[in-house]
Design goal:
A hairpin with a 5-residue loop joins β11 and β12. The strands form five sheets. The protein has a seven-stranded mixed β-sheet, covered by helices on one side. 34% of the residues lie in helices and 16% in strands.
Length: 466
Amino acid sequence: MFRANTLQPYLATSSLVLLMACIAVEPGRNSSGSQGAVTAGHPLAAQAGLDVLQSGGNAMDAAVTMAAMLAVARPHMNGLGGDMFLLYYDAASDSMYALNGSGRSGSAATLADLHAMDLTEMPETGPKSVSVPGAVGGWASALERFGTRSWGDALAPAAELAAAGLPVSERLALDIAGQQEKLSAEPEAASIFLPGGEPPVAGSTLEMLDLAQTFTRLRENGPTEMYTGQTGRRIAEFMGERQGLLIAADLAAYEPVWTESISVPYHDLEVVAFPPNTQGVALLAELTMMSHFDVGALGHNSADYLHTITEVIRLAFVDRDTSVADPDYMRVTVADLLETNRLQTLAAGIEPTGVAPAALVAMDNDHPNTVYITAADQHGNVVSMIQSLFHAFGSGLVVPGTGVVLHNRGSLFRLDPEHVNVFGPARRPYHTLSPAMVMRWRLAPRGETARHKHCYRYSITSDSSA
């Protein structure tokens, strides 16, 4: 039995809040009759991933196909001009892999140059907020290493959707209308997403012909099209015209990075997260501190519970905001941040019966700017993947003639030379995106080799602006 599910966009204000989709899998076995499952933020993407599994593809094939589909179906949230990260559990080797698909800073200006422009912080939008978009290179690297389908086949459903035009749902119509002011400031963005000068209405079709042509070039020329091909050249030229920080050499130098996941035990679970430059370490620190409290005794959503969890998050975020950056430039290690005795001492300083907020203000958690993907196949392989433009429509810039919306992850750099996340040459910015998995251990019967039984729970992000 295959399962598909649409996971609607949702952002938690804390990385302790996990969106969950569980499937029990064991290497080489079909558990509970399940053959596979996919989860995506749009029904067309979920269906495309399900089709891949049903036609014999594996979890990575399905994940990359869904990622490309979402680049079309959720244009305000993610796309060819964004970043991605994934965790991959390989059942055959019983191993976890992590892929960093985030881009680095542009080299058209130095920190001193930015200071000379009288900038005290990175612009939130516009050409100087754009760093190298890493998603396309990440998809290609993931598919090459663990997929079974060709690059062209993986991108085919997305190319077809872009060519046909995107059906506008009520949700998409509202999301575009909410960004009308941002879009109208940029002629290219307005021409695509504000047809006739107004947001599209539900039930209409959004034409995406330039994006369709870009997907065609990607399928024909391979992923290097995004970085050194016609598309990459147009991005570099556009950035030059707009006094952005990216140049052609920055795009050409981009490579996604396979790295090691990080994890901590939490009761009978092993929680796996993504290392810096993402904030995954904050999730693990929070769980480590929470393990020192009897959460059940505090009472769900009681004042003591809310006070405790708020204090745990606050302490973890202090570490995050002062220590997490490009790992090549961090001044402390992940091991330092997750040192058990240190976190136990921090947790011991929290008094559960302390003063909680007098009133809880309702927060709007519907920030439509990140998509999430899960795929599990009949072999027990699982992908936990996240990608984004950061803010809705990212930098607000669309590269003319390509349909590529550029993200604004570069806005997360700091301009304080003393800060660990300071802007510098070829650096990856601190990142809010952080996929996760939760591994549940099972004791093997006597005489058999120990195995895992895995229940995977997926974290979307850990702040409200990812």
